[in-house]
Amino acid sequence: MLPPASRVEEVLALAASVAFRIQVHLRIGEFQRLGIMKDHFDTVDEARFLCSVCNKEAGHIQLLRGPSSAELRRNSFTSSFSSAVSHEHFDKLRRAIADHDARAF
Questions:
Q1: CA 64, CA 40: separation in Å to the nearest integer?
Q2: Which of 21, 43, 57, 58 could make a disulfide contact with 51, Cβ separation 3.0–4.6 Å?
Q3: Between residues 101 and 27, which one has the greater pLDDT?
Q4: pTM
C-alpha cells in the first residue's frame, strides 16, 4: 500500500529543503575559500547603555574584529548602525567601551 499523497509531498518538501541547505552550505564554503564573502567578525568588546529616564537598555555597542578589518556596531531602540574602524581608532574605541564612555562615540 502506498502512503497518502500528502505524506509523499511532505517527504519531498523535506528532501528539497535539506538539498537546498546543503547547496547553501557548500556555496558559503566556496565563497569563503575564494574570498568573496565578508570577513567573519568576532566580538572584541561590548557595552550596554541604560536610558536615563526609564533605566532600560537604550543602546548596545560592539567592537568587532575580523581577519583583515574591524567594525563598530551600535544598536538602540531607535536604529542600528555599523561602521568600519581604522587601525588607529581601534584602541581608543576599545577603551571607550571598557570605560562605558558614551560621549566618545
A1: 9
A2: 58
A3: 101
A4: 0.56
Cell of 1: 500500500
DSSP state of 2: P
DSSP state of 56: S
Per the CB < 8 A criterion, the answer to whether 28 and 36 are in contact is no
Closest-CA residue to 43 (of 67, 75, 66, 77) = 66
List residues bridging with 48 in a β-sheet.
Answer: 60
Give the DSSP letter of residue 101. Answer: -
Q: Note the pLDDT of residue 1.
A: 56
Of 68, 79, 73, nearest to 97 by C-alpha is 73
Residues 6+ apart with CB under 8 A from 88: none
Per the CB < 8 A criterion, the answer to whether 41 and 64 are in contact is yes
97: how many CB neighbours lie within 10 A of its CB? 20
* Cell numbers for 43: 566580538
Cα separation, 40 vs 6, in Å, equals: 41
